[in-house]
Amino acid sequence: MTLLALAAAKAMMASSAFVLPLAKAADRVLGPRGCCLTFHRIARSEQWAHLPNRDFYVDADFLDRFLGYVLDQGWDVVTISEALRRAAGVEPAGRYVNFSIDDCYRDTFELLVPVFRRHNVPVTLFVTTGIPDGTLPLWAAGLEDALLHRDRLWIDGEHIALSSAEQRRAVFAQVAAGWDGPQAAGCYAAFCAANAIDIDAMHWTHAISWDMLEALARDPLVEIGAHTVSHARISSLPPEAALHELADARLRLNQRLGLDVQHFAFPYGRAADCGPRDFALARQAGFASAATTRKGLVHAGQDAFSIPRNTMNGAHRSLAAMELHLTGLSGTAARVMGRV
Ligand SMILES: [Zn+2]
Asked: Which residues, including other chains, have CB under 8 Å from residue 132's CB and lie 6 or more apart?
């Protein structure tokens, strides 16, 4: 298919005129199914447009509208535990959706969980324990914050003047692509030093704290899972180091929150990031399930250690785009295009 035809197909799929009738057909054809959705951060609508890394954030108003929509359409919003019970046939399946938030930032506590409370539905938080422990440099959040609030910055030895939101987005994309990888922490530390940014204060501007997590752990609507210690790509580690990332995160959550954490989500989560060896390690670490970011739906008999999840891209603020996930079409398209 040519690029032009692909773009046309994508535009057609995102229009409600095309997608909503498909949703009705999917309900008749597919019957019982679950859809796990995941994202990282949330921002107020008025802030969202200005954010240099805005695709990483779901707009709070849109999330509120989408939650209302799925409930109106008769979907049940469930925890991962409940989704697994339904997939195993322990409870009647119906149509169910799970929302999970990976990493966990301060906005999870301040802005995100309150949206779910307003609708009285559960949400799953997959915590990277290096964030509340202050051991994982939140370089993307710090870079973005500086780009948003400063007019000029020293970046990798260059003095850069910042103007429009669009230019800040372009600078973020370029710098983040250059930093991404094992060198990110060093690049970020040098960037903070060059721009007189207090790296600790910046961390706690964006990180979730253990105090916040303690409060969330007491909320019956919040299910807490693990997402490694240092947000490592598990498939890239030797078995022992990989097992540590899984087991130590589980232990840390137990020590700090007193929880016997059952569920895990693989960082990055695509086929190259976690495979059969890693699914077995998750079981060995004591988890009852592990989730990926391979797109698709949960059906009866779903393997608990390779749960598909559909990432909500912040740029797609339409119910039609969300229906592509709920109908499983986004997963089908990803498989056709080899993006697994
Ligand atoms: Zn993550």
From this structure: 104, 207, 208, 209, 210, 212, 213, 256
Please tell me the distance between residue 182's alpha carbon and the centre of ligand 1 in angstroms.
16
Predicted pLDDT of residue 277? 98
Q: Can you point out the beta strands (E) in 227-329?
A: 263-265, 289-291, 310-311
On whether both 246 and 176 belong to a single domain, the answer is: no
Q: Quote the domain boundaries for residue 49.
A: 33-134+207-263+280-336
Q: Identify the burial level of 3 via C-beta atoms within 10 angstroms of its C-beta, where 0-12 means exposed, 13-18 middle and 19 or more buried.
A: exposed
Query: At which residue do the structure tokens 């997959």 appear?
Result: 126
For the chain, the domain total comes to 2
- Residue 246: φ, ψ to 5°: -75, -55
Ligand 1 is a single-atom ion; what residues have CB below 5 A from it? Answer: 102-103, 267
53/107 same-domain check: yes
pLDDT digits (tens, 9 = 90+) for 168-205: 999 999 999 999 988 999 999 999 999 999 999 999 99
Which CATH number fits the domain that encloses residue 251?
A: 3.20.20.370
In which residue ranges of the chain is pLDDT below 70?
Answer: 1-20
- Residue 3 is predicted with a pLDDT of 54
CA distance 123 to 217: 11
Q: How far is the CA of 102 from the centre of ligand 1 (A)?
A: 5
pLDDT at residue 18 in the model: 63
Asked if residue 106 is part of any domain, the answer here is yes
3-state secondary structure of 289: strand
Tell me, yes or no, whether 55 and 123 share the same domain. yes
Residue 272 lies inside a defined structural domain of this protein: no
